[in-house]
Amino acid sequence: MNAAGDKLVTNGKGNPNDRSPKGGKAGPIATVKFGSASVPIYLSESKGRKRYFIAHYRDGKRIRKAFADLAAAKKEAQFVAQRIQSGMQHVTDIKPHERDNYVAAMRLLEKSS
User: Fold this and answer.
1) What residues are paired with 56 via a beta bridge?
2) What's the pLDDT tens digit per position in 63-93?
3) Residue 30: CB partners within 8 Å, gap ≥ 6?
4) Distance CA 93, CA 54 (A)
């Protein structure tokens, strides 16, 4: 993480009284970002107790973790966002020789049609 701060935490926007059709809040209360990866933090209240949830996908499954305080949820969300970002770099990057092969193949296909 650089000193300029690749991380960013934003607060939810909009009217806090807006309700979703299921009766919960309309969206996340905060979003933790690292690079282009972001992890939302949701607030749930039940029997007078507040719980903060982070939600993300791993291996095609939705992972949801609960925390008693917002600081702990933000810390875990930052860790998850960093893992997502580092994983995305390995998957989405294309090596220069692979790009050259792709361009050559596309040229051959254009000539054949």
Assistant:
1) 63
2) 899 999 999 999 999 999 998 888 755 555 6
3) 9, 10, 11, 12, 40, 41, 70, 74
4) 27
Residue type for 22, please? K
CA dihedral defined by 91, 93, 99, 101, rounded to 10 degrees?
A: -30
Predicted TM-score of the model (pTM): 0.57
β 61-67/49-58 pair status: antiparallel
> Domain-by-domain residue ranges, the chain?
7-112
Residue 18 identity: D
Output phi, psi for 70, to 5 deg. Answer: -65, -35
Give tens-digit pLDDT for 27-52. Answer: 899 999 998 889 999 999 988 899 99
**String of b and e for 42-53 (b: at least 16 CB within 10 Å)?**
bbeeeeeeeebb
